[in-house]
Amino acid sequence: MAQCVQSVQEFIQDSFVPLVAALCSEEAERLTRKNNLGFSELVKPFCRLTSEVHMRDPNNQLHVIKNLKIAVNNIITHPPQQGAIRKLLNDVVSVSQPAEGLVANVITAGDYDLNISDRSVKASVPWYSNWKDTLMELNTSTFYSATTPWFESYRESFLQSMPASDHEFLNHYVACMLVVSSGEPEPVEQFLKLSQEQHRIQHSSEYAYPKWFIPNTLKYYVLLHDVSAGEEQRADSIYEEMKQRYGTQGCYLLKINSRGSNRGADEQIPDPWSQYLQKYSIQNQESYEDGPYTVISNKNADNLMSDGLDNDIKVDGLSNNFKAHPLQLDHLGDTSCSFDGTDHIKTMTSLQESKKTSSGIPHGACLTLTDHDRIRQFIQEFTFRGLLPHIEKTIRQLNDQLISRKGLSRSLFSATKKWFSGSKVPEKSISELKNTSGLLYPPEAPELQIRKMADLCFLVQHYELAYNCYHTAKKDFLNDQAMLYAAGALEMAAVSAFLQPGAPRPYPAHYMDTAIQTYRDICKNMVLAERCVLLSAEILKSQSKYSDAAALLIRLTSEDSDLRSALLLEQAAHCFINMKSPMVRKFAFHMILAGHRFSKAGQKKHALRCYCQAMQVYKGKGWSLAEDHINFTIGRQSFTLRQLDNAVSAFRHILINDSKQPAAQQGAFLREYLYVYKNVTQLSPDSPLPQLPLPYINSSATRVFFGHDRRPAEGEKQAATHISLDQEYDCDSSQQWKELEEQVVAMVNKGILPSNFQPTQYCLNSYSDNSKFPLAVVEEPVTVEVAFRNPLKVPLLLTDLSLLWKFQPKDFSAKHNGETKELACGNDMIGAEVIAEFLINSEETKMARLKLFPHQTGELHILGVVYNLGTIQSTMMLDGIEPSIGLQAGKFVYNGMSVRGRQDLDIQGPRLNNTKEEKTSIKYGPDRRLDPIITEEMPLLEVFFINFPTGLLCGEIRKAYVEFVNVSKCPLTALKVVSKHPEFFTFGGNTAALTPLSPSASENCSAYKTVVTDSTSVCTALMSSASSVDFGVGTGSQPEVIHVPLPDSVLLPGASVQLPMWLHGPDEEGVHEINFLFYYESIKKHSKMCHRVLRHTAVICTSRSLNVRATVCRSNSFEDEGKGDNMLVFVDVENINTSEAGVKEFHVVQVSSSSKHWKLQKAVNLSENKDYKLANRERGKLCFKAVRCKNSGEKYIFADVVFGNEQIISSASPCADFFFRSLSSELKRTHTQSNIFQGAAKQSFDEAVRLIQRCSEVDLNIVVLWKAYVVEDNKQLILEGQHHVLLHTLGKEAFSFPQKQGFKKILGNSDWEDLEQESPEMVLLKFFRPESTSVPTRPTPEQLSNLIKTSLHYPESFNHSFLQKSLCLVPVTLLLSNCSQADVDVIIDLRHKTTSPEALEIHGSFTWLGQTQYKLQLKSQEVHSLQLKACFVRTGVYNLGTPRVFAKLADQVTLFETSQQNSMPALIIINNI
Predict the structure, then answer these.
(1) Would strands 218-226 and 173-181 be described as parallel, antiparallel, or unpaired?
(2) How far is residue 300's CA from residue 640's CA, in Å, rounded to a whole number?
(3) Antiparallel, parallel or unpaired: β 71-74 and 19-24
(4) Which residue from 1012, 794, 789, 785 is spatially nearest to 882, judged by alpha carbons?
(5) Helices (H) and strands (E) in the chain, counts
(6) What is the enclosing helix (H) or strand (E) of 902?
(7) Average pLDDT of the chain?
(8) Are 391 and 460 in contact (CB under 8 A)?
(9) What is the mean pLDDT of residues 551-571?
(10) Smallest Cα–Cα separation from 525: which of 489, 490, 488?
(11) Closest CA to 1215 of 1075, 1071, 1011
(12) Distance between CA 328 and CA 321 in Å, rounded?
């Protein structure tokens, strides 16, 4: 049970006190009424004695009485009606509420900190954010226990209002005060009249109420004297006469009203009456404090008097007409006594006024402190001289009567042992006893005399004697089976045993249990049973038997009284929490039960408090259904009590939890919430918009998009993909775009990235960098995508959904640093889009895109969303079909209930993790995606691609068109495009002469610039030249950044321009994503935004076409004797196309070379058929002769070998464009690979080795141009394309596309192509340390073999007559050519060097005549002829290629042997004639 203010002993003593009746004359009553008090009310605060009292027991032993209290009441001749008692108790509980602002009572129970009572409604509700912190602060090292003042008030009022009963005498009157005023004409006669009236009331059969203790009631005569108005002498003389008549012990002169009512108003006199009268001030009220708001609807109307008792009881044959009882009901005509909400007539205002007037009435206004002492003295005198001697005498008389009647020894004390030790009668169980509760004893029955004596002893605290008497009476009553009397004796015996000083015997709880069971089950008297429970529970609690107390309290809960059940259940809950091991969940459960019963009893505030306290336990434990029930009830009760904010919060909590309720229940919760919310908003229409709990908003998933929506494709026109909210965020892609933008900005700013550079971000999300304020452009929409989630199983309908924003206008163009203009914000500055209806189905996540249209520059802050929250009728969810399928927008079946509110978009930035302080603490950076800066007007570019292909063959050239449109009101300039794949596209050369005018330049609508060739020029090269600068690949420029050739370099507002664009299919097959970034600026420079970009991602699927491989080697022939510089170029072309693409065959139409030093001269060994066709999987070989060209400076010489009727000008667009782009990307690739070996190592290369290496280097690039014949839809198309092979090294094979080296050596080339599709690429990881890389100091054999070129000139066959001459001499010329740029020392050794028998066979037996060794020095590029003679002795075929040539640079020591591997065997045939 809860903690009480009084101790148990004090509580029981104050519950049973001697009752004194008061009978006043009218004049005496008038005197007391001057103080707004009746006589009994006047003396009430002074009825407790301040000193000890002594009296003697029947054995003449002195007995001390401490802290005695008496009760003085007016005589009321009719018992109170049950309905009136119930109303009084209801009102007592209703008025007593937890005081606001007091220290909270906190109980720490296990893991719980429970706030009990005082601030529980505020501090324990689930939506109270820091309730636990608050409780912990309050609970600093002090243990607070809970108090429940409403329960104590109820208990006190219950015990005081109990009607007197015949089976006990505790609430029978012991004495009667007769009060007369000294101002009456004949006071003594008035005393006689009052005495006769008292005698008539007690002894006449007309009056059965009140009850009197003994026939000879003590009469005490009180003369009341008004000091301010009466004559003191007269009063004294009357008093003297009274003493003569009644004795000094039986009368008293009480002087009051020493102060006139009109004087001394400023003097403050204490008012001890208010605390006693407050309880009764509610008796005449017609309505409760929450009267007008008790009922929501008739269905929910709770009858306040729902105890279910029959109110038309007749007691002792008298009807309950309440003529004089203070508990009289005001509704005289209302016999049913059911007070529902419709009976509350008074309004709140009138009730408050009546309260003010009643509370403003002063009590005791005519009394001084001296008068207070006089009244206190009067009560003392009455008790000492009148009441206690009377009780002492009565006890003696009763004792004597009992002894004489029983024939026992002189005193009960000496007989006690005999009574208790002898033959005990076994007590029968209750079930065996007959229901004889109706048995009545006559008043003079000895059993009743024992009981009467016991009660008198109990009232004067003689508990041992009282216990003995009760025990004796109990046995007699049980023998007679008078169960009502027996139960009363058992009850009081148990209490007496407990109250005995020194506790000689333990508390007999079983007595009390028997008494309760008897009252309840046999006597059907719940009032007495309740009294037993209240007493016993308090006793058990004092002995820390909380479990027994709780069981006792719970046992008496029943359906007949909701108020009693609620209070007892609440006390039982407190018992559970006060146990040694607190049972917190039992506490919560019983608080819920108590709250339910309080609610049924109409005690809404107490019901709300109970539910709130229980919520502390259930909250956050995963018991969602229990939480929902509690919150729902809290919401309803709070709404009934007009605590609308609490109601809203409770319903909100039901909705925002992941509810496990069925859909119908959730719908009911939602409707209730909306109804309550609507009431709140109607009460305060001007208050700011409330925060709505539904739907959930995932703030971090909010995306912001700046700019217009992308236009769809129109026919052949395809708009640039740019960026939109429909695209998924890709981190790698985002980084690529950022790098591209940095690249172009750096180029525009002369290679340096500006310090204030901020990459353009059109779409901001949780992955983007949101640390800086984003930039938006005036007159361009800002789209915010909000992620809504509906956690409920019922659909939500949002109407009039729009963004909530704040705008601060600023002028960024002015020079005063953007000072804020004082302008009022309105719709003329920011236009907002409103979505009329937005339906979110059950448990659906749905995105809403809301737009703002800024019309002025400044700072925009997007705060959140504002909308009407409502529901649609759930009948639309038939057969699982979404309502949105069958309903058009704006046609939802709307149930009419909606509330307007807002939700803020509060985005937490990324966690900071850079500095040590940030790593050790939790700090978050800003997220400014919702705070854009609106900048001044900027140009806006739209790009459309016309005839843009989606599929190409590898190397295919296709011509498309690009249309640039300026859709803004500002001209744009400096248009550039940047891409990671510049070799994929071109806009043509810088000069018009290099760019074809239109696709119709040739017979086949070729994309190339072509010229019809002369038949005589077949297989010989046609020359042209071009500079790489013309194609944007000059030195110092970035090939990735391409200037778009706009006319006049400006695109005016509203203007559009179409430019041709040639595309070149990537060399590798597969799907390629190629990113274009278009960069442009405004003509007017802005402070905030310098440039804008437009993105486009082209997806090209390429399929196989040709595979081109080429090798170059030195020619052994010396046709141009003077130069000796010619090479053979072998080109191997293979058709690796699969038939899927529909390609019939490929025609190689031209092979061109491009180099600064070499050029193709002619084709070698070409067949007569000019057409060079390759069907599927066919391979062809071509051989060309290349010669060194004259020094052309920085220009590239293009040489075209044409196989058809048209020459493609390879030095013009687009052929040269793609050649230069592939050249630059190849150079870039090889440059990054060789970066590893840069540094000091590179400088340590031996100069000699470098010279030797240079001999084997060649800078010759081959371009193979082809046409493909494709059959598509029964039409034949001609595709054209080009492949590039870059030859760097003599003898080393080069390819038209990058090779994967691992398998290629093992497999054939075409097999490798197939395998490439199936096997994943496997790359070995190589770890190296660049600083320790060894540098080769010796040249490789391949490099040495190219230092000196050798050639033998001899006749193919030689005829000789061996018969005439046995030796055959053949002249042989050995030509030596120095290929290096330095002087070379050469040694020619003619001696045979045989290493194997096979070599002997090839060489045969011939010998060189003359010198076997020659030493020569060859100048740079010099050709030297050496005449040799070979001697043969027989016919045969001989290999003359045996001379060994050694060479070294002139200033070096080491000799290097040149290799002859590359030259064919020099075979000679010797014939005999």
Answers:
(1) parallel
(2) 10
(3) parallel
(4) 794
(5) 36, 56
(6) strand 894-904
(7) 77
(8) yes
(9) 91
(10) 488
(11) 1011
(12) 9
SS3 1177: coil
Q: Give the three-state DSSP class for 1336.
A: coil
1158 neighbors 1260 (Cβ within 8 angstroms): yes
Tokens 């025990």, located at residue: 471
Cα–Cα distance measured from residue 1424 to residue 1376, given in angstroms and rounded to the nearest whole number = 5
Bond from prior residue into 695 cis (ω within 30 degrees of 0): yes
Structure tokens at 138: 């309050």
**How far is the CA of 1272 from the CAs of 505, 960, 1102, 1222, 1281, in angstroms?**
116, 20, 17, 30, 18
- Other beta carbons within 10 angstroms of residue 787's beta carbon come to 17
Sign of the torsion angle spanned by Cα atoms 1014, 1018, 1024, 1026: positive
Residue 1025 pLDDT greater than 80, yes or no = no
Tell which phi-psi region holds residue 942, choosing left (phi > 0), alpha (psi between -120 and 50) or beta.
beta
Six-digit token string for 310: 């029959």
Residue 1282 confidence (pLDDT): 92
- Sign of the C-alpha dihedral computed for residues 849, 852, 853 and 858 taken in this order: negative
One-letter amino acid for residue 1010 of the chain: T
The secondary structure of 1253-1272 as a DSSP string is: HHHHEEEEEEEEEEEEEEEE
Mean pLDDT of 588-592: 92
Yes or no: say if 1110 and 1129 are a contact pair by the CB < 8 Å rule.
Answer: yes
**Cβ neighbours, 10 Å, residue 113:** 19
Whether the CB-CB separation of 161 and 327 falls below 8 Å is answered with yes
CA distances from 1450 to 762, 812, 953, 1384, 1453 (A): 67, 74, 53, 5, 8
Any idea which of 213-217, 480-484, 888-892, 1250-1254 has the lowest mean pLDDT? 888-892
The answer to whether the Cα torsion of 1012, 1017, 1019, 1023 is positive or negative is negative
Whole-angstrom CA distances from 540 to 7, 550, 586, 765 are: 12, 9, 19, 66
In 1310-1347, DSSP assigns E strands to: none
Could you report the per-residue pLDDT of 1306-1332, keeping only the tens digit for each? 344 444 444 444 444 455 555 555 444
b/e per residue 372-395 (b: at least 16 CB within 10 A)? bebbbebbebbbbbbbbebbbebb
Cβ(110)–Cβ(583) under 8 Å? no
Cβ neighbours of residue 553 closer than 8 Å, sequence gap 6 or more: 1, 533, 537, 568, 569, 571, 572, 575
Q: Token pair for residue 148?
A: 């429940």
